[in-house]
Amino acid sequence: MTTVAAPSPSLAADRLPLFVGLGVLLWFVAAMMFRLLGPALLIPGSATLPLVFAGCIPLAWVFLKIGVTLGRVSGAGTLLAAAVMSAVAMFLDALALTFFPALYGLPTAQLLLVAALLLWGVAWILFFAYVQTRRTQ
Q: 3-state class of 96 per DSSP?
């Protein structure tokens, strides 16, 4: 009896730096969005916070689409590309929130909401990538 292993999803080594760069870009765009829109939208206890969280869902889909389009990946490579981009962005967020919180231009109380929204957005990016990967199998 012969078994055939399923092809492993991989990113070509020459495209890995692209996805790292896209992760940096994803992080920077999100950080600047928080800096510009955060004072008006990220108000602890505000009734509009559920709308802000809901608005991040389509934004996560857009970030994923931009990444996979620029990186020319599809199928199983989508989830791996999303994981690389998301990991890079989360590493940079952790460093920025810890060592350079002034980058976000927000008081400390609002930085907690920034951290929550960043986790929320990354979770949606990974979810959309997973769904897209499953659809192609």
A: helix
pLDDT of residue 4: 45
Q: What's the pLDDT tens digit per position in 27-39? A: 999 999 999 998 8
* Separation in Å, CA 109 to CA 44, 67, 106, 125: 7, 31, 8, 25
Under 8 Å CB-to-CB from 69, ≥6 apart: which residues? none
The overall average pLDDT reported for the chain is: 88
For residue 22, which phi and psi values (nearest 5 degrees)? Answer: -65, -35
pLDDT (tens digit per residue) in 39-69: 888 888 889 999 999 999 999 999 999 999 9
pTM of the entire predicted model = 0.85
Q: And the tokens for 102?
A: 């002034």
Please state, in angstroms and rounded to a whole number, the distance separating the CA atoms of residues 29 and 10.
26
**Selection from 85, 56, 57, 61 nearest residue 71 by Cα:** 85
- Output phi, psi for 111, to 5 deg: -65, -30
How many Cβ atoms sit within 10 Å of the Cβ of residue 115? 14
Contact 97, 114 (CB under 8 A): yes
Q: Is 56 left (phi over 0), alpha (psi -120 to 50) or beta?
A: alpha
